[in-house]
Amino acid sequence: MIGDLKELQGLFINDNKLMGTIPLSFTREGLGLVQVFMEHNDLSGTVPSDLANLKDLKDLYLDGNKFTGTVPFSLCVLDLNQNFLTEDSEDRDGCNSIACPINNFSPEGVFPCSPCGPQGTSPYLGHDKKCYHLNEKHILDIFYEKTNGPMWKDSSGWGVDNVGVCNYKGVECNTAGHIISLNLPNNGLSGEIVEEIGMLRHLRGLGECTICSINNQ
Fold it and tell me: What is the Cα–Cα distance from 106 to 137, expressed in whole angstroms?
């Protein structure tokens, strides 16, 4: 385990496709880690507060992953990443120097952070891509575009400005008008299931055959 490398001072595993959570072995007191670069992977879970046990730690980069929750206060008070932050103001603090909070966005994933606003969301710490739209019609428009909508066998209502989403082919809504299910089996979808679909907060069903239709093209 990496946590057994007691003399390790630098861990640079950024810009890969690593998944999973941060191993507890990384947080062992007595490790000599000074720099930890984990940004731009697919790591998830929460950020362990025990990383503060790394007494020599100077740089910790976690942005561009899928961490949720908050940056632990025990790390914020260490005021890390000072060698790489060129901007300073009263809005910068030890937390957003490590990662911007959820519902914020920054091209670098760290300070300066900008709020997503009422029509957007960012569920991940240190998000460095964009804020996701909450507007359901906008989300379905992206889905339609990325799955070659004009070539579907039946795209009734899709891509038409004056048609409500509840009248789209294969869309089921609840009584409040929110999308709860997408059912588009054998309809000629191709491409990718965009991550914006995960922002449909009321979605309860994504038809199995809808997924099959996309993956089997």
Answer: 25
